[in-house]
Design a protein that fits this description.
single chain, 411 residues, alpha/beta, 4-stranded parallel sheet, 39% helix, binds pyridoxal-5'-phosphate
Length: 411
C-alpha cells in the first residue's frame, strides 16, 4: 500500500480500517458508513511541494501521486486524465455581474467529463485488487469514463444505465467496449440492480459513493485549480451536485492542500442542484444530514439523482468551507449553456452549466459580491448531450444558396 495513506476512516463511527484495494463501506455502519482516505500529511508535505510541482513535467492528474491512494508502481490507464485547461472568462463574468470568473474545463478529459479522474483511480484499484472486470451504475458519465479507462488498461466493464441516458454517452459506452445494461427505470433502479449484480459476479465496484478511492481522484481538480492560480485560491468554487461525490472531492482537495501547507485558506463551495431534483440542497437548508428521496425531474441528467449516495460527505464539505447551496431551473441551465458558449467558446452539458447558472443566481441574490473571485467547473462537455445543447442553442439561419437572400437575412 502507498506509504502516504494511513487508513480508511468511517465518516459515521470514526473507526479506521486497513486501506485494502477492495474496501468499500464500514462493516459496522453499512451503507451509511462511507470511508474516507486519511493521509500522513507530514510525509506528503515532504514529497509534494510548490517547487517539486513546478519542475514536474507530468501534465496529468498523476502529478499529485503523494496525495493519491494508489501504489505508484501499479500500471495506470495510459489516457491523459486531468491537467485540464483553466481560463479567465471576462465576458462571462461581465454577463453575470462579476469581476473575475475562471472556467475549469474538465470537459477536456479523455472521455469528456470530470468523472475520468475518479474512474482512472478506480481502474488502478481494480488492477491492485486483481480484478479483470469493473462495474458501476451511471447516469452516463461515470459509466463512459469507466469504460474508457478500463479498456485503456485492458479491463472489461459492465455498466448499468437508466433508460434516459443521453445518446452521446451511450455511444461512448458502446464504442469503449462496455457491456451496457440499460435498465427500464430510473438511476436508483439501475443502481440497485448494479449492486446486486456486483455481489453476484464479484466484479470490481466503481460506484462512486461506496468506493472510498474515487473521491480521491475527483479531488485532483482542486489541486489543479490551486496550482493553476499560483496558489492564490479563489473566494468561491461552484460545483453541480448529484450524488455528492464531486463536491465532496473538490472540498477534500482544498482541505488536503491546506493540511500540507500548500495553501493557507480554502474557498467557499457553492453547491448547485436542479430545482426538479434537489434532495441534498433540501437537507442543507434544513441543517440536517438526513435525506428525503425525490423524483428525478431535470434535463440535467448527470445531477438528477433522487437518492444520493454520498450526501453526508457533500454536506460536510460545503459546511466546512463556509459555503452555501442553491437550486436552478432547467431554463436557467439552458441559458447558462448559451451564455457560457457564446462568451467563452466552452461547451458545457446541462449538469455542468448548472454550476454557472448557480453563479449567476448567487450574484443576483447578493450571496456572491461583485469583487469576489470565483471558479466554475465544467464537469462535462456539451457534445455528450446534443439534444439539450440544441435546445439551448436556438435556430440557424435557413436560406437558399443566394447572396441577396443572405443580405436580407443578415440585415
Ligand atoms: C456526475 C456529474 C456531476 C455531479 O457529480 P456527483 O458526484 O454526482 O455529485 C456533475 N456534472 C456532471 C457532468 C457529472 O457527470
Amino acid at each position: 500500500m502507498p506509504g502516504h495513506v494511513v487508513g480508511l476512516r468511517c465518516i459515521s463511527c470514526g473507526h479506521t480500517y486497513e486501506p485494502t484495494p477492495t474496501a468499500l463501506t464500514c462493516p459496522a455502519c453499512g451503507d451509511s458508513g462511507i470511508l474516507d482516505v486519511v493521509y500522513d500529511y507530514d510525509r506528503v508535505r515532504l514529497d509534494l511541494t510548490r517547487d517539486s510541482l513546478a519542475s514536474d513535467r507530468n501534465l496529468s492528474m498523476w502529478r499529485y501521486l503523494p496525495l493519491l491512494p494508489i501504489n505508484p508502481s501499479t500500471p495506470r490507464p495510459n489516457l491523459r486524465v486531468g491537467w485540464t485547461p483553466f481560463y479567465r472568462a471576462d465576458r462571462f463574468a461581465e454577463a453575470i455581474g462579476l469581476e473575475t470568473v475562471y472556467v475549469k474545463d474538465d470537459g477536456q478529459n479523455p472521455t469528456a467529463s470530470l468523472k475520468d479522474r475518479a474512474s482512472a483511480v478506480g481502474v488502478v484499484k481494480a488492477i491492485e485488487a486483481g480484478a479483470t472486470t469493473v462495474a458501476c451504475a451511471s447516469t452516463g458519465n461515470a459509466g463512459s469514463s469507466l469504460a474508457g479507462n478500463a479498456t485503456a488498461a485492458g479491463l472489461r466493464s459492465v455498466i448499468f444505465v437508466p433508460e434516459r441516458a443521453p445518446q452521446g454517452k451511450l455511444a461512448q459506452l458502446l464504442l469503449f467496449g462496455a457491456t451496457v445494461v440499460m435498465v427500464r427505470g430510473n438511476y436508483e433502479d439501475a443502481f440497485r440492480l448494479s449492486a446486486t449484480a456486483i455481489d453476484r459476479w464479484g466484479w470490481y465496484n466503481r460506484n462512486a459513493a461506496l468506493n472510498p478511492y474515487l473521491v480521491e481522484g475527483k479531488k485532483t481538480v482542486s489541486l489543479e485549480i490551486a496550482e493553476q492560480m499560483d496558489w492564490q485560491v479563489p473566494d468561491w468554487v461552484a460545483v453541480s451536485v448529484g450524488d455528492g461525490c464531486t463536491i465532496a472531492g473538490v472540498g477534500k482537495g482544498f482541505a488536503d492542500l491546506q493540511a500540507c501547507g500548500l495553501i493557507d485558506r480554502v474557498p467557499r463551495l457553492l453547491g448547485v442542484q436542479a430545482v426538479g431534483c434537489a434532495p441534498i440542497n433540501r437537507a442543507f437548508k434544513a441543517g440536517t444530514e438526513a435525506l428525503t428521496p425525490e423524483p428525478e425531474n431535470s434535463l440535467a441528467d448527470s445531477i438528477a439523482v433522487g437518492v444520493p449516495r454520498n450526501p453526508v460527505k457533500a454536506l460536510r464539505a460545503v459546511r466546512a468551507s463556509g459555503g452555501d447551496m442553491l437550486t436552478v431551473t432547467d431554463a436557467e441551465i439552458l441559458a447558462a449553456m448559451r451564455t457560457l458558449g457564446t462568451t467563452t467558446g466552452v461547451l458545457a452539458e446541462p449538469a455542468a452549466a448548472a454550476s454557472f447558472a448557480g453563479l449567476a443566481k448567487a450574484r443576483a441574490t447578493g450571496l456572491i459580491r461583485p469583487e469576489e473571485v470565483v471558479v466554475g467547473i465544467v464537469t462535462g462537455n456539451g457534445l455528450k448531450d446534443v439534444a439539450n445543447s440544441l435546445k439551448a442553442a436556438g435556430e440557424p439561419i435557413h436560406i437558399d444558396p443566394d447572396l441577396r437572400a443572405l443580405e436580407r437575412a443578415l440585415a
